[in-house]
Amino acid sequence: MANILAVDDDADVRHLLTTALERDGHIVHTAASGSQITDAHCKWADCILLDVMMPGEDGFSTCRRIRSIVDCPILFLTAKNEEADIIRGLGLGGDDYLMKPFRITELRARVNAHLRREGRTPHSKIRRGQLDFDLGEKLIYHAGTPIKLTRSEYAICEHLATHAGQTFSKEQIYETVFGFDGTADDSAITEHIKNIRAKLRAVGSEPIETVWGVGYKWRREQT
Same domain, yes or no, for 132 and 113? Predict the structure, then answer.
């Protein structure tokens, strides 16, 4: 059971989300606008579903406003299928997205997959080059200072770093990290890798290598 915050200006969609997610035993709170989301909502929620196209403060603006105070997965609900819009949302700190109209089974599967990933708490530490991974805290440290990554960015780093030297396709990374069946989303992984590289480069580390035509790997010399 988890606390789910669902934000959409369409009352029918809010009812649909509530009915579907309560079927899995979750507690669902809904809001009709991003501007209604407070710090208290962010601290309460274990997962946030955020419609992109809302009057007033849209989903992207809400994500930008709350990402620094919310530590849970944010999934966009969007009718926008342009790659630029999807990349923008992920770049703002979103973890995933569902295209409208979506299937209820896919909605439930994706939400539950994110929640399962949040619930995994391995208790060990590993070092890769100058980076220290705390697998329990789900944090990467450089010189004792944590690097600010989203949960999805951290999960990708952990997967690649714990299999240093092994190449994974974008599809394999998506499926392994998020646990979804079916076709992975290339643009999501590409944008997450771009964000990860920028953050790691800021501390002088460039461990992720592109294997052209195949995917990505964590350089073995970083172990």
Answer: no
Q: 7: part of which helix (H) or strand (E)?
A: strand 3-7
Q: Which of 91, 119, 147 is the last residue of a domain?
A: 119
Q: What is the mean pLDDT of the chain?
A: 87
pTM: 0.60
State residue 204's pLDDT score.
94
Calculate mean pLDDT across residues 49-74.
Answer: 90
Range of the domain at 198: 125-222
**What pLDDT is attached to residue 182?**
46
> C-alpha distances in angstroms, 12 versus 17, 23, 25, 75, 156?
9, 17, 20, 19, 35
SS3 content of the chain, % helix, strand, coil (to 5): 40, 20, 35
Which of 90, 119, 148 marks a domain boundary?
Answer: 119
Q: Same domain, yes or no, for 91 and 196?
A: no
